[in-house]
Every structure is written in C-alpha cells, then in structure tokens.
Amino acid sequence: MALPLHSIKTTKTGQAPSDPLDGLASRLHGVLAEGHGTRLAKARVGLWIRSLLDTLFPQVAEQTYATTGEVRDALDASAADLRALLRPLESEIEDPGRIATAFFGSLPEIHRQLMIDATAIERGDPAAESVDEVILAYPGFLAIAVYRIAHRFSELGVPILPRVLTEWAHERTGIDIHPGATLGHPVVIDHGTGIVVGETAIIGNNVKLYQGVTLGALSVTKSLASTKRHPTIEDDVVIYANATILGGETVIGRGSVIGGNVWLTSSIPPDSIVYQRSEVHVRQGRADFEAPDFVI
After folding, report:
1. Which domains does the chain have, with CATH numbers?
2. For the stretch 270-283, what's the b/e string if a residue is b when 16 or more beta carbons lie within 10 angstroms of its beta carbon?
3. Which of 41, 116, 203, 262 has the highest count of CB atoms within 10 angstroms of its CB?
4. For strand 273-274 and strand 251-252, is the pairing parallel, antiparallel, or unpaired?
5. Residue pLDDT, tens place only, 172-231
6. Residue 9, pLDDT score
7. Among candidates 172, 198, 167, which has minimal Cα distance to 183?
8. Phi/psi class of residue 253: alpha, beta or left (left: φ > 0; alpha: ψ in -120 to 50)?
9. For 277-294, what is the mean pLDDT?
10. Sheet with strand 263-264: strands edge to edge
11. In which order are the strands placed within the sheet that holds 202-203?
12. Is residue 255 within 8 Å of residue 273, measured between CB atoms?
C-alpha cells in the first residue's frame, strides 16, 4: 500500500528544507512525480513467477486442478496478470498485450525444455529418486526454470523484468544466471550454490555445472558493455566445483572436463581434461609429530 507523503514546506528562496528527512521525502516524491525510474513492483513479480511455476509444475503447487479446463483458466489468469505487470513499462515497450501473447505462445516450448532439464538432472544424480523430486526440491532446477522464462522476456525486448526474475531465483538458490546468457538443453546444475553465469556466456547442450563455477568476464569496464565478455562452453562439457572460466574469447571445446578450482582465461580444444595438481600428504600415527600451530 502506498503511503501519502506529508507536504513539504519550502522557503521563499527555494532553499532545500533544513530537516534532512524533508529533503529525502522531496527526492523520493520526485522519482514518481517527475516520471523517473521504472515502476515495476518487485513483490508482484515474485507473486507472478511463483504462481506460474505452480501452474507449470503441479508437483510444487498447493492448489490442484480437477480438469484440463481449470489448468487453462489458470494459464489465462497468469497471462492477464502479466499484462497488468507490464503496464507500467508501456513507455518502454510497444504493446504489453502483444508481449504477453508472444510469451505465452512460447510457454509450451519452455516447458518442454525444462522437462528435459529435470530429466537430465534426475538421471545424472544418484541421490535423486524421481523427476518430481528434482522439480520440487532442487535449487538448480528452480534457477534454470526461472532463467528460461526470463530469457524469453529478454528476447522480446522487455526491460528490467528479466533481471528481477533471475534475481528472485538468485535470492532463493544462490545461483546467479544472467537472463541474457544463452543456455542449451539440457543444462544440469548440481548443488549449484555460488554459480555465476554472465550476460554474454554461451552454454551448449548437455553441459553440467557444479557449485561455485564462474563463467565471467576478464574486465568489468563499462565500455565493454556491448561486447562478448563471457566464455563459450560447447556441448557435453563438465565443469567441477569452484572452477573459474573468464573472457569472451575463451572457448571450452566439446566433451571437455574442467576440474575443481581450475582458473582458465584461454581456450582449450575438444575432449580436453584440465585439472589443478595439488599435494596432500597422509601419514599414519602421531608419534614424533608436532602439529602446526594454526591460528584461526
């Protein structure tokens, strides 16, 4: 609920109010009164995406649908909610109704891709007992599902909303996938916490990412905003935990395996195995062993 701002007294000379909160209130009011900023309600976006996911995946929903007609009614209601959600963006997009129609026209294909993702996650994880469990409980699947929805809005030229959607998933999963990235299918995220996939990253089909993987840029200079800054991962690649792969010209060749904690800034050919060698010493017995003086 929007709370009315108290009227602010100004001096005849036009000086700023002496009370700091009056000055803050004036600036905040100006954001709306002067048309600055994008008026997209973040909380409404969260409610919309949660409702849509509940409809697409009844495994996670509280509400059940008795008939196909009820499911269709739920989808139509979601489309109406989307049109209302997009209305504040009318100055930046041509036709919210057209955008909503185009998005929902894409939804069957998005759902098909997501079921491929969920099946691949289940088949590749010995701990997963069913596809339903993946859909219900796996943060990697949630992050991919919201990414695929957000990416479609990005393709349709909708501002702000794609990032709000993927950040909604980021808050819940710890997985940060930019909606502008390009992901094939299936993409499998195992565990997933700490994964970062940058805006211009390209990920092929049948790729598996473990927790902590970063597909990032070598530089964050603003002048590079319109260039490819993030790596390309070809088909059938596995990237293990905490590997970091940087640079828009970096290509990980098809069928490669990238070991844990590897740092890469250059391309590797197909079917490569990249790993970081470390030494771990194991000895039996504690006789004549002086423990290091660790200070934590």
Report:
1. 41-174 (1.10.3130.10), 194-278 (2.160.10.10)
2. eeeebeeeeeeeee
3. 203
4. unpaired
5. 999 999 999 999 999 999 999 999 999 999 999 999 999 999 999 997 777 777 789 999
6. 52
7. 198
8. beta
9. 68
10. 176-177, 196-197, 214-216, 244-246, 263-264
11. 182-183, 202-203, 232-233, 251-252
12. no
Query: Token digits for 140?
Result: 């990697």
DSSP the chain: -PPPPPP----TT-PPPSSHHHHHHHHHHHHHHTT-S----HHHHHHHHHHHHHHH-GGG-SS--SSHHHHHHHHHHHHHHHHHHHGGGTTTSS-HHHHHHHHHHHHHHHHHHHHHHHHHHHHH-TT---HHHHHHH-HHHHHHHHHHHHHHHHHTT--SHHHHHHHHHHHHHS-EE-TTSEE-S-EEEES-TT-EE-TT-EE-SSEEEETT-EEE-S---GGGTTS--S-EE-TT-EE-TT-EEE-TT-EE-TT-EE-TT-EE-S-B-TT-EE---------S--TT--------
Residue where the block lists tokens 């909708």: 158
The C-alpha torsion from 134 through 135 and 140 to 146, rounded to 10°, is 170
Residue position matching structure tokens 């602010």: 8
Name the residue with tokens 């990249």: 274
